[in-house]
Structures are given as C-alpha cells and as structure tokens.
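step=encode ok
step=design start
structure_in=
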C-alpha cells in the first residue's frame, strides 16, 4: 500500500515526464533504445484500453532504413518538418505506423468480431449476443457510426489512446518520441499494401510514430493554456 510520500513521488515523476516530452523532430542516430525498454513501450500499447475492448489496431515496426525510405517522398511530417534534415525517418531509433481496422471488421456482427469475442476475449455465447446488441446500438444509434470512413475514424481514436500511452511510458524512462500525422493517406495506404502486405480492405494507416533520443534540446519552451482555460468544473 502506497504511503503519502510514495504518492507524492509518483505525482512528481508523472508531471516531470510530461514536461520532458516534446515532439522530437531529429533524433541522435547513434543512440538506440534497448530491447527491454522498447518491449515495455510495446507492452504499454498492448495493454491500453480501447472502446468495447475491441483492440482495432496493429503496430507496424519499420526498422529497415530501406523500408523507411519508401515513405520519404510523401511523409513530410517524418522529415523533421521539412527542415532539410533526415528527420525522424532517418534518425529515430524506432519508427512505426499504427494501422486500424476498417468497417470490414468493425461493423457490429462481423465475422471478425465474433471470432475476436470467442478466441481473444473468450466470452460465452450468451455474452457475445449481449455484446453484439450493445455494440450495434452504440454504432447505429448512440454515436451514429455508420459509414466506412466513420468506422475507420472511430478505430483511429483508439489508436491515439494507444500511442499516447506509448509516449508517456517512454517519457517516464527518459525516451523521446514524436506522433506524426504529416503524410499522404492514399500513398501511405498504397505503399503498405504493395511493400508490406497490408490489405487495405481490412486496414488503414492512422498515425506514424518515432522513438529515440533527442539530438538537441527543444528550441522553445513548452507552452500550454492555463489550467483555468483548460478545465471547467461544475
């Protein structure tokens, strides 16, 4: 059981990690994250919460520089924000893409979900029936997630929970990171299908990411709105 001192220490470490973290554009290419540390980051991803516990994502780790270069031309966000450097693609210790399930899998009652309920969640048939009804209502009535794009975007929300947990876990270990949305969606989808065997009928890219150790400290201090402007209590 934690005492007051332990709680205060944990609180301080959390805030320190969030102040430490910044969107690193260029990493030190000579510093690599240890296998054990990155395994912890991936475990944080695997254990992350997702809506209905559906885990509608896969993480693609792209460590080959040759494979990374396939994205160079149309991923300006992974080029150090176009500052003339090799950016995250060329310098990150670990680089990856989170792809998310499309409507093919995420529509209530899909064969994919029935298999998921039985073999991953290990639910009995009567509970699966309850899940189908509740999730179907959530999609069609509560949130009106009905089109292919809406379902893929919903899955993308889950990917951002996953990536946030990865980045926070990394920051707690003194490891830098960067979430990356600056890429052409169509060309990324095409590249994943052609060179990585990712079926675009079932998966779409949601977000890229990079992890490593910063090449230099941030040029500008971290700025955020005040707590009063951020939170309203009722």
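sequence_out=
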């Amino acid at each position: 059981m934690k005492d007051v001192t332990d709680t205060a220490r944990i609180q301080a470490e959390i805030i320190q990690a969030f102040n430490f973290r910044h969107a690193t554009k260029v990493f030190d290419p000579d510093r690599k994250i240890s296998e054990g540390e990155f395994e912890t980051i991936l475990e944080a991803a695997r254990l992350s919460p997702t809506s209905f516990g559906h885990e509608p994502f896969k993480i693609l780790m792209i460590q080959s520089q040759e494979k990374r270069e396939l994205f160079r031309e149309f991923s300006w966000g992974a080029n150090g924000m176009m500052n003339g450097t090799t950016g995250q693609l060329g310098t990150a210790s670990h680089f990856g893409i989170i792809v998310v399930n499309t409507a093919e899998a995420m529509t209530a009652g899909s064969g994919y979900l029935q298999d998921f309920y039985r073999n991953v969640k290990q639910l009995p048939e009567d509970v699966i029936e309850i899940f189908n009804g509740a999730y179907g209502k959530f999609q069609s009535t509560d949130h009106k997630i009905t089109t292919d794009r809406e379902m893929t975007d919903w899955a993308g929300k889950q990917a951002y929970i996953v990536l946030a947990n990865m980045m926070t876990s990394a920051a707690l270990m003194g490891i830098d990171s960067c979430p990356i949305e600056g890429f052409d969606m169509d060309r990324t989808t095409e590249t994943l299908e052609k060179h990585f065997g990712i079926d675009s009928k079932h998966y779409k890219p949601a977000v890229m990411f990079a992890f490593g150790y910063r090449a230099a400290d941030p040029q500008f201090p971290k700025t955020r709105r005040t707590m009063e402007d951020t939170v309203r209590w009722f």
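step=design ok
step=annotate ok -> The mean pLDDT is 95.
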